[in-house]
């Protein structure tokens, strides 16, 4: 295997040597890599068990011509390819293969007095970021879909977090003094916003965010979590007045 070529020899999706997942990781560390496929994969299907890594290696080429009728399936759960991120300029080429049963689904909104809005479904089989460019040739797209997330239902006194690009919004909650809004959903399947709580709930890690996902829910002091999430107003909850908005005011001490 030369420094600029990686041959995929397995239709498994466990990240081991010879898999497409491993090939993309290799290409990300070695810009200019061509990912090709061994002829033993002719007519084979690679079925994803989670989202593939972002394609971040500039000038990456994924070429299925060595294995005619090769299919990459999103398993009706995952987007197949995501090219680029929010910072790096990436150019890539994907050619001579089939992308099937890919699903780009926006996260569902969290429940609350006002349910969070569902996230947009973006990309279908392939999403290309605004910092990236993609050339395609000889692609077949079959049974792929992009669907928005569901809006959050009615629940506790505070606002539900909005769905993200894959991650679900967290649910709002009633605290002993302040309500706690759910954190917004993050980037990637599983990047769910934290549920509201007095101390603030942590968001869940997603495929792409590795632990920084979704942000925290707004905590009892009314401060948003380190990675976002939470609503702009807190709520005092009491038996008599369960939904009273508190407007922040600046107080200057003199003496």
- Separate helix tally: 1
Helix content: under 10%
Taking all Cα atoms into account, the compactness measure Rg is 22 Å
Average residue pLDDT: 76
> Quick one: overall form?
elongated
Question: Secondary-structure blueprint of this entry?
Answer:
Layout: E1 5-8, H1 20-29, E2 34-37, E3 45-47, E4 60-63, E5 71-73, E6 81-83, E7 90-100, E8 103-105, E9 126-128, E10 132-142, E11 145-147, E12 234-236, E13 244-246
Parallel strand pairs: 1-2, 2-4, 3-5, 4-7, 5-7, 6-9, 7-10, 8-11
Antiparallel strand pairs: 12-13
Describe the structure.
The protein has one helix and 13 strands; from the N terminus they run E-H-E-E-E-E-E-E-E-E-E-E-E-E. By secondary structure, the protein is mostly beta strands. Strands 1, 2, 3, 4, 5, 7 and 10 form a seven-stranded parallel β-sheet that branches. A hairpin with a 7-residue loop joins strand 12 and strand 13 (244-246). The radius of gyration is 22 Å and the shape is elongated.
Summary keywords:
mainly beta; 255 residues; 4% helix; 7-stranded parallel beta sheet; disordered C terminus; 23% strand
Explain briefly what this protein structure is:
By secondary structure, the chain is mostly beta strands. The chain is built from one helix and 13 strands. The chain has one helix at about 20-30, and strands spanning about 5-10, 35, 45, 60-65, 70-75, 80-85, 90-100, 105, 125-130, 130-140, 145, 235, 245.
């Amino acid at each position: 295997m030369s420094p600029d070529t990686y041959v995929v020899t397995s239709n498994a999706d466990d990240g081991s040597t010879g898999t497409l997942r491993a090939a993309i990781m290799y290409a990300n560390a070695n810009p200019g890599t061509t990912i090709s496929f061994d002829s033993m994969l002719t007519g084979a299907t690679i079925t994803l068990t989670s989202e593939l890594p972002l394609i971040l290696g500039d000038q990456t080429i994924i070429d299925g011509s060595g294995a005619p009728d090769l299919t990459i399936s999103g398993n009706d759960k995952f987007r197949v390819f995501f090219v680029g991120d929010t910072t790096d300029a990436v150019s890539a080429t994907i050619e001579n293969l089939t992308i099937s049963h890919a699903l780009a689904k926006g996260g569902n909104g969290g429940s609350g007095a006002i349910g969070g809005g569902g996230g947009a479904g973006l990309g279908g089989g392939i999403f290309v970021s605004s910092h990236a460019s993609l050339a395609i040739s000889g692609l077949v797209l079959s049974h792929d879909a992009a669907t928005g997330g569901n809006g959050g239902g009615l629940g506790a006194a505070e606002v539900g977090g909005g769905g993200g690009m894959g991650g679900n919004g967290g649910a709002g909650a009633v605290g002993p003094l302040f309500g706690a809004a759910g954190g917004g959903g993050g980037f990637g399947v599983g990047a769910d916003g934290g549920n509201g709580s007095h101390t603030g709930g942590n968001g869940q890690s997603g495929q792409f965010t590795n632990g920084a996902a979704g942000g925290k829910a707004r905590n009892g002091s009314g401060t948003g979590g380190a990675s976002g999430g939470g609503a702009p107003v807190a709520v005092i909850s009491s038996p008599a007045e369960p939904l009273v908005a508190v407007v922040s005011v600046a107080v200057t001490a003199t003496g």
